[in-house]
Write a structure and sequence with these properties.
Elements: H1 17-23, E1 31-36, E2 39-44, H2 49-52, H3 66-81
Antiparallel strand pairs: 1-2
Length: 83
Amino acid sequence: MRLVTTLTSKGQVTIPKVIRDELGLKPHDKIAFSIEGGVATIRRARLSLGEMEGMLPPIGIPVEEMPAVAWEEWVERFAEDNG
């Protein structure tokens, strides 16, 4: 599929809806660009844990401790279900 859009004087473009839908992009999503062999590609950016911090309401657990807390909760639920 090939779609064409126009670059504004501010260097902005509108990403066509079909591409936004295919990539699952929503307003304020991070987008990553890369260039290889003179070809530019666009993809939805993956966020690091640090970048995700603050996106959810505070729950009183530092981001770095969340994997351990999640594991402990899973073990407790598994034990209850398989008691």
